[in-house]
Amino acid sequence: MGGRDREDALSEIIGFVLILALIVVASTLYLMYVVPAEGREDEIEHMNQVKDRFVSYKTSVDGLWLRSLGDLSILGTRGVSLSTSFDLGTGGGNTQSSGLFLSFMRPIGTAARMSITGESGDYLTLRVDGNTVLDRVPLGSLNYSTDNYYWIQQTYAYEMGGVFLEQKNEGVSVKVAPSLSLYRFGNGTSQNYIPSVKLNLCLVNLTREAGTIGGTGPLRVETRLRESMVSSYENSRVDSVSVEIDARNERWASAWNQAFIDAARRSGVAESGDLTDDSHQWFFIHRPDDTTSILEVRNKTGDPVISKDVMLNLIEAPLQVTFEYDES
Predict the structure, then answer these.
(1) Are 65 and 229 in contact (CB under 8 A)?
(2) What are phi and psi of 201, to 5 degrees?
(3) Which member of 79, 112, 135, 179 lies 3.0 to 4.6 Å from 89 by CB, making a disulfide possible if both were Cys?
(4) Closest to 160 (Cα-Cα) out of 321, 318, 287, 322
(5) What tens digit of pLDDT does each residue of 106-164 get?
């Protein structure tokens, strides 16, 4: 009788150990497969929200400088502050669940950083008819970076009116074109027609020095269009315009090179073929070195050669950007 009691007690212990082992195995599988999948989905969704916020920010800033064009004696939107909120990081499991056990069953939350490159970023040089009009002006870029645990490391950047995406070990791509456009323009009758190509360039540059702020809470970005905005060239006929970007690295130079090519293609006047070929009329896009990309718009070649068939419209729109982080 006593022997049977001891066997019954042993079987209960074995059963408990087996149940515990099943719980451990199930929890391990959940942590190995389900939690990373949830974390990946959270981070993808968050980065898509960041992209949408940058596109919205670009649209709002465009509205600031567009409404300031015209009579400079009218104040317009110069000095008006634009407030945009960015959520730093995904929040994560520790902030979304209570209890020690449940916190381990949720994806790890990530923090994020908002930064401005200042003079450590890209530079723009503008030459008109061979004369340097703007010499290595620092563009400055507003960057949002997060160290994703389950998804690709990504950085969204707003630079010169465009939105760029930089992915670790995968280069830089243009999500929204910068404030540079080309299109066909002409005047005169069909017997006296002067074909032209027009370059619209808005120099949207961030004037704040380089700085970084990081965390997991909401960050408010205050943007103000400075009153020093002036129109340097207004539909001026010239012989040639050269827009040169001295980029921070080869990846960014490639992105700007693609932005130039896309602008030429969208213009409707770019001839088919390779725009990096010097024999092309109107456009010449080239990279003299790994970190430089140049767009040249010049008189159309041919017989007869027409003088000053390039039009330039240049606007300068410097932005003052500040950060306000809510730690509560």
Answers:
(1) yes
(2) -135, 120
(3) 112
(4) 318
(5) 778 888 999 999 888 899 999 999 999 999 999 999 999 988 888 899 999 999 999 99
CA torsion sign for 169, 175, 181, 183 is positive
- Enter the pTM of the model: 0.83
Token pair, residue 199, equals 């370059």
pLDDT at 194: 59
Domain boundaries, the chain: 2-325
Q: Are 195 and 184 in contact, with CB atoms under 8 Å apart?
A: yes
CA angle 97, 102, 103 (to 5 degrees): 65
Higher pLDDT: 42 or 246? It is 246
CA distance 105 to 31: 7
